[in-house]
Amino acid sequence: MTGRVSKAVFPVAGLGTRMLPMTRAVPKEMLPVVDRPLVQYAVEEAVAAGVSDLIFVTDRSGPALEAHFGPAPELAGKVETGAGGERLDAARALVPPEVRLVFVPQGQPLGLGHAVWCAREAVGEEPFAVVLPDDLMVPGCLPDLVEAFDSEGAAGVVAVEEVPLRDTARYGVVDVGGAPGRLSRIASIVEKPAPEEAPSNLAVVGRYVFDASIMDLLGATPPGAGGEIQLTDAIGALAASGPVFAARFRGERHDCGNRAGWLRATVALALAGARPADPFARDLETLLADWRGSAGAGP
Ligand code: G1P
Hints:
This protein is α/β, with parallel strands linked by helices. Helices cover 30% and strands 23% of the residues.
């Protein structure tokens, strides 16, 4: 894939307080889903979209990320069994040789917009993607966003999906001025509106592509919802200066930023492709039947 977007920013400086105590020593993005940490799904999606510079905005997880993605000489000679039963060199690097890992500190937790702005020097004048690893997308949608960004000559493209109206206060919500198509130009966007104030039920999910000009807009963005510098507010300013599109995501998104969503993702991905005789699928059926029995027999 030869797009213009070769850089992606991963804002991963959060403390993961919703996932405590798991996240005391293990950064949230390093929590596993089935056989790999959350961040690996995000990185694989970015690499599939043509990204070669992975820019992590983080204060504490740099060493874990480097250890995970780089070569592991201590595993030399060991073999890993892949998802399809294939034999893999356990010491291999998990990203292609041309892919670079770059680390940028955030310093202060001033919001998602501030985290992205912290990557401004690493991004330079090029368009770039933003990937929130908490949102595990199946299938990954960044390749489609990058393609739309290139083909539309857009200033930005953000992934959206319909959510129940009662949930709008958890998301950035877009107004596309009517019924949404596959790609719809954003008229306005608001961060975490109450359902009665939401312009629609089209919620932004954690995949974005922007022109570098959003960095200056972020630098001028005052604190917004929750007292934080919001990426959403800079997207609104970007949409006033050039076309920004909402791209509808039609796959399955797992919100792994909370315990229930993370557990659900683990089960869903473990079941994906499993045959009925798979031991995990059978055990899960037994566990559910036992749980139903004991729940039914309860007080
Ligand atoms: C962030 C963004 C929000 C977006 C969401 C997607 O919110 O601010 O606009 O809809 O990610 O996951 P957060 O989940 O960090 O509160």
